[in-house]
């Protein structure tokens, strides 16, 4: 199980069913015994779904959006996705092209995943407007938005994750080179998570506010997991079967303000204990929240505006999403505050049944919002995984 309370926190060790043991960085050269589990763990490129959605969080991530070059259309886009797919399949298996930069030499696959998506504008540029999913309609504006259009959206989106920073950067360079004259980088963001093995046992990750973050994610073993996260077959856009919609938000954390709060206040903002992520109503990390419990002071123990209360599916007509973020830190902003926060990436079969209703509610007065600023936004259609011999998006582009 990859997406569960502990699953998303796992590094190499926990990806049962997602990962297979790699044969080594040079496939068959016999060098694999030298690699630890972290280096040798391999995510599968081919399959029903693209890798990088239910794959356990990696310690390093790059999000990159590209725009097609003027004059590039469907033919160039198809050729690009073909090149990108071949590169992704090689790199995820720990194979490097002959003309390689050498950046990842000596390392194994290190759980590398490369995930490709299409933005709303892609479909007009390629003459495929009729096949653009309604799910790509622009997200509504929210009052807490301070979005930078230059760092938002894009024709194409690539998510890279790996448990080694050099492996991740290597993939980034290779894919950018593959883009050639067909597409130009529109924006890029770099993120990180805890390194596998840093904690005594696999645990749910913490974010830069120090909270245990990811506890109540849908779990792959939930009966409705697939229905909530992946697009079913038989829909109006058959090429999206097995795919998912990614909402990407660059969320700045106002850490100087946040860190002024007492521990008790911080815990009330979320509705969970900071130490172990357990609900304020008691138990352990995985104990359900008791949203109806009152304290001796006659007040709700989990306050009315607590983030975990407002975002819970029970409060949102069942709206659920799989949150799979990376933290970011890009130095100090001109005003002296840390340019840091969360590259929030969430996955759902339909953004109108996932991100949108929940964010609408959070936006109306969740206790966490005063400490956040949404700085960039993207919405991408991520097609299903490629079958052997297929490239990503082939069912749309061929
Ligand atoms: C839960 C933090 C933004 C949706 C949580 C939890 C924390 C947290 C600590 C409790 C543990 C857990 O269940 O994972 C944050 C931070 C954010 C952020 C620091 C911004 C930097 C968002 C946004 C959304 C969202 C933008 C969606 C619009 C959720 C959901 C849950 C959750 C659905 C699970 C609620 C439940 O079922 O109990 N978040 N969150 N969060 N958050 Fe956020």
Automatic annotation (TrEMBL):
Pfam families named among the record's database cross-references: Dyp_perox_C (PF20628), Dyp_perox_N (PF04261)
Requisite cofactors: heme b
SUPFAM superfamilies: Dimeric alpha+beta barrel (SSF54909)
Cell compartments where the protein resides: Cell envelope
Dyp-type peroxidase C-terminal domain location: 204-385
Protein family according to the UniProt entry: Belongs to the DyP-type peroxidase family.
This protein's name: Deferrochelatase
Organism: Streptomyces solicathayae
Species classification: Bacteria, Bacillati, Actinomycetota, Actinomycetes, Kitasatosporales
């Amino acid at each position: 199980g990859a997406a569960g309370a502990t699953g998303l926190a796992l590094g190499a060790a926990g990806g049962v069913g997602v990962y297979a043991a790699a044969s080594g960085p040079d496939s068959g050269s016999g060098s694999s015994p030298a690699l630890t589990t972290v280096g040798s763990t391999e995510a599968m490129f081919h399959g029903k779904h693209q890798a990088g959605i239910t794959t356990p969080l990696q310690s390093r991530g790059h999000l990159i959006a590209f725009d097609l070059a003027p004059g590039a259309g469907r033919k160039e886009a198809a050729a690009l996705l073909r090149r990108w797919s071949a590169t992704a399949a090689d790199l995820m298996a720990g194979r490097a092209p002959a003309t390689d930069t050498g950046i990842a030499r000596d390392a194994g696959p290190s759980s590398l995943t490369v995930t490709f998506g299409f933005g709303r504008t892609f479909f007009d540029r390629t003459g495929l407007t009729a096949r653009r999913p309604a799910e790509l309609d622009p997200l509504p504006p929210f009052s807490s938005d301070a979005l930078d259009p230059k760092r938002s959206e894009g024709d194409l989106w690539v998510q890279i994750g790996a448990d080694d920073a050099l492996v991740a950067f290597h993939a980034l360079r290779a894919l950018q080179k593959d883009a050639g004259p067909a597409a130009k980088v529109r924006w890029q963001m770099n993120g990180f998570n805890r390194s596998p093995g840093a904690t005594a046992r696999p645990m749910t990750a913490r974010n830069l506010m120090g909270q245990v973050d990811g506890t109540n994610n849908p779990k792959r073993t939930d009966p409705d997991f697939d229905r909530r996260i992946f697009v079913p077959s038989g829909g109006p856009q058959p090429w999206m079967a097995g795919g998912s919609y990614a909402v990407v938000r660059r969320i700045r954390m106002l850490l100087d303000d946040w860190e002024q709060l007492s521990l008790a206040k911080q815990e009330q903002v979320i509705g969970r204990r900071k130490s172990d992520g357990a609900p304020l109503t008691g138990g352990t990390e995985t104990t359900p929240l008791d949203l109806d419990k009152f304290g001796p002071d006659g007040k709700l123990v989990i306050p009315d505006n607590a983030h975990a209360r407002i975002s819970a599916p029970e409060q949102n007509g069942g709206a659920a999403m799989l949150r799979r973020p990376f933290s970011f830190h890009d130095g100090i902003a001109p005003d002296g505050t840390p340019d840091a926060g969360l590259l929030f990436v969430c996955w759902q079969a339909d953004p109108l049944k996932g991100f949108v209703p929940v964010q609408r509610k959070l936006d109306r007065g969740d206790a966490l919002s005063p400490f956040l600023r949404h700085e960039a936004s993207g919405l991408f259609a991520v097609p299903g995984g490629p079958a052997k011999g297929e490239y990503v998006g082939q069912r749309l582009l061929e």
